[in-house]
């Protein structure tokens, strides 16, 4: 039903225009903000003479965040050289099919928590694939991000310079 009154039609057009404009702006700024938190959403790997290399850009807070996979399940990693092992929130562990192997206690920034030890069959960052990675399942966190600790990072060569972290491996 189209309004017959010209003022009503102009008003409806005006409202629809602004709703559409705000919708497009919301999509644009949501994507922009996501990129600010994780500038490494699509990793580009370089493979030269058996050496696979990935360069990660630091986010605005100076942290390295990157998309990857655990057992073919898409995840977001927060690289943490201060963490002993990979720490997976329980909800992500369930989605990735991780099994609780043994109970343990872990010291975190929030204090000591009960966790479950597990093994990640495959962990991927770009073209770098790590197998049989020691990890913990943390039921005490509701974050949607995986802490990528030294049980994974220790299998790689890495160096940092001017806001760029370079990860390298030869074992694939």
From TrEMBL:
InterPro entries according to UniProt: Clan_AA_Asp_peptidase_C (IPR011969), Peptidase_aspartic_dom_sf (IPR021109), Retropepsin-like_bacterial (IPR034122)
Organism superkingdom: Bacteria
Keyword DNA damage (UniProt): no
Coiled-coil stretches noted in the UniProt entry, renumbered to this chain: none
CDD domains registered for this protein in UniProt: retropepsin_like_bacteria
Keyword presence, Hydrolase: yes
Keywords: Hydrolase, Membrane, Protease, Transmembrane, Transmembrane helix
Pfam families, A to Z: gag-asp_proteas
Transmembrane segments: 12-32
GO process terms (BP): proteolysis
Protein's name in the database: Aspartyl protease family protein
Organism name: Halospina denitrificans
């Amino acid at each position: 039903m189209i309004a017959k009154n010209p003022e009503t039609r102009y008003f409806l057009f005006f409202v629809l225009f602004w709703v559409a404009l705000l919708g497009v702006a919301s999509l644009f700024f949501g994507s922009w903000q996501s990129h600010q938190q994780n500038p490494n959403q699509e990793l580009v790997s370089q493979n030269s003479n058996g050496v696979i290399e990935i360069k990660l850009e630091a986010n605005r807070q100076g942290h390295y965040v990157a998309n990857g996979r655990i057992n073919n399940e898409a995840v977001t990693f927060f690289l943490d050289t201060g963490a002993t092992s990979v720490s997976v929130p329980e909800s992500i562990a369930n989605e990735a099919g991780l099994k609780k192997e043994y109970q343990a206690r872990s010291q975190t920034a929030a204090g000591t928590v009960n966790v479950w030890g597990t093994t990640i069959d495959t962990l991927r960052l770009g073209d770098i694939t790590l197998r049989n990675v020691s990890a913990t399942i943390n039921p005490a966190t509701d974050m949607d991000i995986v802490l990528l600790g030294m049980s994974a990072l220790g299998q790689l060569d890495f160096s940092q310079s001017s806001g760029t972290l370079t990860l390298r491996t030869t074992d694939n």
